[in-house]
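Re: export button greyed out
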Amino acid sequence: MDRYAVIGNPIAHSKSPRIHSLFAAQTGQTLSYEALLAPLDGFAATIAAFRAAGGRGLNVTVPFKLEAFDLADRHTPRALAAGAVNTLAFGPDGVLGDNTDGAGILRDITVTLGCPVAGRRTLLLGAGGAARGTILPLLEAGPASLTIANRTASRATELADEFARAGTLRPQGCGFAELAGQHFDVVINATSASLSDAAPDLPAGLYAPGSLAYDMMYGKGDTPFLVQARQQGAARLADGLGMLVEQAAESFFLWRGVRPDTTAVLAGLRAAL
Ligand code: NDP
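Workaround output, generated via the alternate export path:
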C-alpha cells in the first residue's frame, strides 16, 4: 500500500491524517496516511527511514518547511517563490518539493467562500512563512492592489521588493500605522498574533463595505483578529480551516492525480471542532 504522512514537531494535534483518509475513501484511492514525529535534529534521518520503508510523499509542517525546501532535488515555481516546502513527493527521479499553502487559501477564498480577489484591494498582514507563500498566488489572482503590512515594517517592505517583478502588479510594503486612511476589500491575517490571543494593532477604518476578513488561524470560535474585524465593519469573516483542507487537497492532487471534493470534508471537520 502506498504510504504518506505529515511530518512535524509537535504533530499529535494534526488534522491531516483525518483529512487525507477522507480524501482517499472518497476517491477510491488505496493508501495509508499517518502522523510522523521527527526529532528537532532528525528531520532528514526520519525522512530517509520513511522513504526506505516505501513512503511516497509527505506533508511538512512546523518547524521543518525550510529544511524540506533544502532537502528537495527539484521545486515547483510556487515552492521557489515561497522559499519553503509543505509537500514532498518521492519519485524515481528524486524528491520534488511543492508549496500548496498559497493555492489552498486562494481556492478557499475564491471558490469555497465565493469571494473574488481579482480587481479588489487586498491587504496581507504578516511577513513570515505563511505570508510569503501566499504572495505569488495572490498576485496571479489579479487584485487591484496588494499591500503587505507587518509589525516589523522592514520585513514587509523587503518582501514587497522581492516580489516586485513576480507579476504585473507591484506590491506595497509597510508597517501597520501606515495603513491609516486606506480601505481594503480583502484582508488576510497571516500573522501568528492569534496564537497568543492577540489581534494585530491595526488602525480603524480599513474595511471597505462588503469586505472579507480572513484569518489563517483556526480553532473554536472567532479569533481575536476576526472579533476586531467584525467590530470594525468587515462584512464577512472566515478562519483558516478551509485553507487547511484546500492545501491538503492540492497535495493529494500532486501525489495521486485526482482532485478530491473538499466540501463534505470541510463540513465534517468544522462540526468536530
Ligand atoms: P511566522 O512565525 O513565520 O511569522 C509570524 C508573523 O506574525 C510575523 O510577520 C510576525 O511579525 C507576526 N506577528 C507575531 N505576533 C504578532 C502580534 N502580536 N501582532 C502582530 N504581528 C505579529 O508564522 P507563519 O507565517 O508560519 O504562520 C502565521 C499564521 O498562519 C499562524 O497562525 C499559523 O497557524 C497560520 N497558518 C495556517 C495555515 C492553514 O492551513 N490554515 C497554514 C500555515 C500557517 P514580526 O515580523 O514583526 O515578528
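The first strand starts at residue 2 and ends at 8. The button fix ships in the next patch.
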